[in-house]
């Protein structure tokens, strides 16, 4: 193919500009300013130091937040970039959670109930559980490909119901209604669970289960986050968004549409499965009751509140939705209007539900881009203020996604 | 009238007795014609004649109930749209099918999809192979954008461009596919005489630079007569004329279909 | 055989209730394109008000029921006016997700008020049964069948012949032309939500009376069956909603009645069956039995 190194046609645009200048996202990579680097380093230091200073309650909460964040990223990819309205995310999270539990636990019989397990090493079990969740997503994708919009949404709700039904009824796998203990995680010989007489000390601070799980959760979430950003900014993200917005055109331009819809389900279910593994570890004991419609709606709330498609938004939304109930509960005594659970007033758990239900309504009414859009606006305003002295022409960079 | 596909190697399109019906109405009725290598071939006809339908059949959006379309010895009607793109068939859309919220560069990069291979894992982990590939293809996309005078619009959202610029982005994106056959759907719709003349130059430049056949659907007779090597006329889904522009212009059946060959614009 | 017929009748009567529920849901979808995820919440509100007022001494049941319907209608119209109407220019998916938020808020409040209580509805039929043609049928189910059939018939007659019914069909079919012909779209939308509230409240009554123990938080899960019923019939088909409701009702009751024979499918299979049926229907007809197929223009 000859290259088009001919002169630009007469009287078209002005001088051809090769945008290799830094700052204008020439290669699609964000220009790392000094300010950004500073903020990132500070955040990293803080996150790494957290277990040295805070108590188990917050660490435990943090682990739930990490689990939610990873799962929310998966839903963000599916809903925000692939445009598939799947409300069945909690099903794939359940596959990850119970997959890990089954694969890593030992078989045992307690009286009349028998719980089976394969007793695989925890790391292997975790990886397999994630792959299993991905497989489940892949198996669901042909059904999803045939359905559009809300039909897909409600079909996926059916998946959650069916999944819960299976979970309630397979005692050997799940322990039935009463649930099942989750085997501890261990990596490179370091077990997460506390072993008597072998407490790990770091900088004088005893490292128990919560501390170790914090680092695990942080590492996994950071990796998942970066991976997500790279995927959506690159070729796969482009293809998904094209399929979402103009499916026929995308196919004609060379994107294998059905295959990409399947990929979207595969990747998002793997994220969900990974979130499920973290969730199981955070709980320590899982019951089928957890993985129902309410959880699916929570994940939806996370991505909507955070801003559809945005990675930071998904994480922020996840932190908000997963932590709010516990935070409200902890400070119930000092917060006006909250009454303890069981009494007639508004308990913290109830207040949290009100909060995120109202947040969904308010955001969709006034700020459909969620917290991410609001955050972007704030950042731009701050930048404009900061560079107010220098007379620079208005940028025309369009940030279609983070 | 059926035509057999021609020799291997020369990129050429053969439409063979294609028939398409929608809810009982014949949109295309046994249409057959061939495009010569490196030819600018115009497809004209009154509104509703079936021109866009034929485009959609060639690019794989519709499957004909009868007939075939041969390109590079392959029957396109048996392929999925993305496989057709893989063969190098690229098109523009009459009603501008760009992703308005994405930048021009991102829109162009979509055209490179079938030429690149980086998947979710490679991109997610930012493997060096994926990064190199992205850089190479971005350079090429920028080159093509520059050729079409879009160099300084690369980072503007496609939705913010003027209509004329958007049409050029459509063409640039089609060129990013590295086409062996280019389908242009009403490239000068909504343009004035000066813009039309520039587009005519551009189309000829593309054909000369890439040495590929170009099939274009158009209403603008002046453009068609000035650059087309061959003209095919459709009316009510049927082919009523097929030949050199001057010949077709004088064909009484064509004149009848149009009630005069003067362009109202 | 007797058992089968009994189950069938019970199933049809439950199905009639589901049809009412699905109908309200479909009416909103047809008129506005919005998927109203707050529909179960409307049901819960109506049932809650009816139950609470029913517990007040000397208040006739009919009054309590009317109040329940009234409150559900008021809430539905309020949601439409205050939340849905301002979002008229936005995508229907955005509005639909917004109704999820409404559902969460409303259901949370009702669940909070219910606590662990199970409220009786104060209906006149209680747990009495009647014997018809040798079959024992709970009086509540007969009432459900009668109410369901009459309301459905009334609705379709109104839909087809009355001015407002025609207006609603026009808006559903072609909003722009309807507007040009003088139909006030916002009025029609409000009317659609009004109907949804009323139908949901009536359905709520019959879902919570015998053989159900009463109104409890779990009722919301039953109310969710509106969705598979509507989907099976086709989201934009009012006739389909009736068919879908009947299918779901019959399937559920039969599965429950033959639970012993079906025990290998697990305990409580009858709650999952509507969704299983829905998935099977969708695989064969991706837009439901009577829904319109989507056409793609390039």
Relative strand content of chain A: 5-15%
What is the 3D form of chain B?
globular
Number of discrete domains of chain B: 2
Q: Topology as H/E string of chain A?
A: HHHEEHHHEEEEEHHHHEHHHH
Uncertain regions spanning at least 5 consecutive residues of chain A: 1-29, 395-402
* CATH level 1 name of the largest domain in chain B: Alpha Beta
Q: Helical percent range of chain B?
A: 25-40%
Number of helices of chain B: 10
Oligomer: heterotrimer
Protein chain pair with the most extensive contact, residues per chain:
A-B, 52 and 63 residues
The H/E string of chain B reads EEEHEEHEHHHHEHEHEEHH
Number of helices of chain A: 14
Report the average pLDDT across residues of chain B. 88
Rg of chain A over CA atoms, rounded to whole Å, is 24 Å
- Overall body shape of chain A: globular
What would the keywords be for this entry?
heterotrimer; B: 265 residues; alpha/beta; Rossmann fold; six-stranded mixed β-sheet; four-stranded antiparallel β-sheet; 10 helices; 10 strands; 38% helix; 22% strand; globular; disordered N terminus; C: 298 residues; mainly alpha; two-stranded antiparallel ribbon; 2 strands
Condensed summary:
The complex is a heterotrimer of chains A (402), B (265) and C (298). Chain A has 402 residues and is mainly α.
Polypeptide structure, described:
The complex is a heterotrimer of chains A (402), B (265) and C (298). Chain A has 14 helices and eight strands. With 402 residues, chain A is mainly alpha-helical. In chain A, a hairpin with a 2-residue loop joins β4 and β5 (190-191). Chain B is α/β, with parallel strands linked by helices and 265 residues long. Chain B has two domains: 1-88 and 179-265, Rossmann fold (3-Layer(aba) Sandwich); 98-176, no CATH class. Helix content of chain B is 38%, strand content 22%. In chain B, the strands form two sheets. In chain B, strands 6-7-8-3-9-10 form a six-stranded mixed sheet, sandwiched between helices. In chain B, β1 and β2 form a beta hairpin. Chain B starts with 12 loop residues before the first strand and ends in a 7-residue tail after the last helix. Residues 1-9 of chain B have low confidence and may be disordered. Chain C has one domain. Helices cover 70% and strands 3% of the residues of chain C. A two-stranded antiparallel ribbon of chain C has the order 1-2. Chain C is globular, with a radius of gyration of 19 Å. Chains A and B meet through α7, α8, α9 and α10 of A and α2, α3, α4, α5 and α7 of B.
């Amino acid at each position: 193919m000859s290259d088009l190194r001919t002169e630009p046609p007469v009287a078209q645009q002005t001088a051809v500009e090769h945008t290799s200048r830094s700052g204008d996202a020439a290669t699609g990579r964000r220009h790392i300013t000094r300010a950004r680097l500073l903020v990132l380093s500070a955040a990293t230091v803080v996150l790494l130091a957290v277990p040295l200073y805070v108590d188990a309650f917050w660490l435990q909460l943090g682990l739930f937040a990490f689990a939610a964040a990873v799962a929310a990223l998966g839903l963000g990819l599916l809903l925000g970039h692939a445009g598939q309205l799947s409300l069945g995310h909690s099903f794939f999270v359940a596959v990850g959670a119970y997959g890990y539990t089954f694969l890593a636990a030992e078989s045992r019989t307690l009286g009349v109930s028998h719980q089976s397990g394969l007793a695989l090493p925890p790391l292997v079990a975790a990886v397999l559980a994630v792959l299993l969740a991905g497989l489940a997503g892949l198996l669901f994708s042909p059904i999803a490909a045939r359905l559009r919009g809300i039909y897909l949404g409600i079909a996926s709700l059916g998946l959650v119901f069916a999944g819960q039904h299976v979970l309630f009824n397979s005692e050997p796998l799940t322990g039935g209604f009463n649930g099942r203990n989750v085997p501890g995680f261990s990596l490179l010989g370091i077990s997460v669970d506390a072993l008597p007489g072998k407490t790990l000390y770091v900088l004088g601070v005893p490292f128990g289960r919560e501390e170790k799980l914090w680092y695990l959760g942080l590492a996994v979430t950071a990796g998942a986050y970066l991976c997500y950003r790279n995927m959506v900014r690159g070729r796969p993200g482009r293809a998904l968004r094209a399929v979402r917005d103009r499916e026929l055109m995308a196919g004609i331009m060379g994107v294998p549409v059905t295959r990409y819809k399947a990929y979207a389900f595969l990747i998002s279910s793997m994220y969900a499965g990974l979130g499920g593994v973290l969730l199981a570890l955070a709980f320590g004991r899982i019951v089928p009751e957890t993985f129902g419609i309410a959880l699916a709606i929570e994940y939806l709330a996370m991505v909507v509140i955070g801003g559809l498609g945005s990675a930071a938004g998904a994480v922020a939304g996840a932190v908000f939705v997963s932590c709010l109930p516990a935070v409200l509960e902890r400070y119930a005594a000092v917060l006006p209007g909250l009454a303890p659970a069981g009494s007639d007033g508004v308990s913290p758990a109830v207040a949290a539900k009100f909060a995120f239900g109202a947040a969904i309504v308010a955001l969709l009414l006034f700020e459909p881009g969620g917290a991410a859009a609001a955050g972007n606006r704030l950042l731009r305003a701050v930048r404009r203020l900061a560079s107010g002295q220098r007379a620079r022409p208005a940028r025309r960079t369009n940030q279609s996604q983070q | 009238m059926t035509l057999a596909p021609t020799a291997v190697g020369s990129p050429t399109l053969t439409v063979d007795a294609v028939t398409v019906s929608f809810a009982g109405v014949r949109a295309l009725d046994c249409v057959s014609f061939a495009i010569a290598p490196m030819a600018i071939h115009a497809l004209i006809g009154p509104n509703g004649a079936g021109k866009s339908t034929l485009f959609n059949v060639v690019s794989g959006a519709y499957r004909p109930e009868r007939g075939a379309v041969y390109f590079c010895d392959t029957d396109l009607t048996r392929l999925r749209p993305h496989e057709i793109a893989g063969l190098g068939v690229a098109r523009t859309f009459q009603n501008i099918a760009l992703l308005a919220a994405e930048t021009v560069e991102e829109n162009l990069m979509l055209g490179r999809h079938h030429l690149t291979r980086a998947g979710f894992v490679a991109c997610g982990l930012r493997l060096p192979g994926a990064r190199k590939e992205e850089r190479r293809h971005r350079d090429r996309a920028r080159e093509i954008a520059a050729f079409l005078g879009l160099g300084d619009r690369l980072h503007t959202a496609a939705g913010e461009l003027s209509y004329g610029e958007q049409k050029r982005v459509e063409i640039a994106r089609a060129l990013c596919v590295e086409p062996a056959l280019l389908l242009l759907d009403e490239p000068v719709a909504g343009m004035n005489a000066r813009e039309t003349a520039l587009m005519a130059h551009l189309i000829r430049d593309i054909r000369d630079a890439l040495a590929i056949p170009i099939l274009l659907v158009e209403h603008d007779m002046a453009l068609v007569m000035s650059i087309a090597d061959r003209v095919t006329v459709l009316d009510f889904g049927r082919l009523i004329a097929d030949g050199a522009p001057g010949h077709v212009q004088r064909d009484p059946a064509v004149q009848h279909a149009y009630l005069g060959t003067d362009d109202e614009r | 055989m007797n058992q089968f017929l009994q189950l069938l009748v019970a199933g049809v009567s439950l199905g009639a209730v589901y049809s009412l529920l699905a109908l309200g849901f479909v009416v909103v979808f047809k008129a506005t394109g919005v998927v109203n995820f707050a529909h179960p919440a409307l049901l819960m509100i109506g049932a809650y008000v009816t139950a609470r007022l029913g517990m007040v001494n000397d208040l006739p049941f009919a009054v309590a029921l009317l109040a329940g319907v009234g409150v559900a209608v008021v809430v539905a119209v309020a949601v439409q006016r205050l939340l849905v109407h301002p979002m008229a220019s936005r995508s229907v998916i955005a509005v639909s997700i917004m109704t999820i938020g409404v559902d969460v808020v409303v259901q949370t409040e009702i669940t909070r008020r219910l606590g662990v209580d199970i409220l009786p509805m104060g209906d006149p039929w209680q747990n009495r049964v009647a014997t018809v043609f040798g079959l024992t049928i709970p009086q509540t189910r007969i009432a459900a069948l009668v109410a369901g059939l009459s309301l459905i018939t009334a609705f379709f007659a109104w839909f087809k012949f009355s001015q407002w019914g025609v207006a609603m069909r026009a808006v559903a079919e072609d909003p722009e032309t309807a507007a040009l012909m003088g139909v006030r779209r916002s009025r029609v939308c409000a009317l659609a939500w009004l109907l949804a509230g009323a139908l949901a409240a009536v359905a709520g009554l019959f879902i919570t009376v015998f053989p159900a123990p009463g109104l409890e938080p779990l009722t919301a899960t039953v109310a969710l069956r509106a969705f598979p019923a509507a989907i099976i019939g086709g989201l934009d088909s009012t006739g389909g909603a009736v068919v879908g409701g009947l299918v779901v009702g019959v399937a559920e009751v039969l599965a429950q009645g033959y639970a012993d024979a079906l025990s290998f499918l697990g305990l409580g299979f009858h709650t999952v069956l509507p969704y299983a049926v829905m998935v099977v229907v969708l695989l064969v007809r991706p837009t439901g039995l009577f829904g319109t197929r989507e056409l793609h223009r390039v």
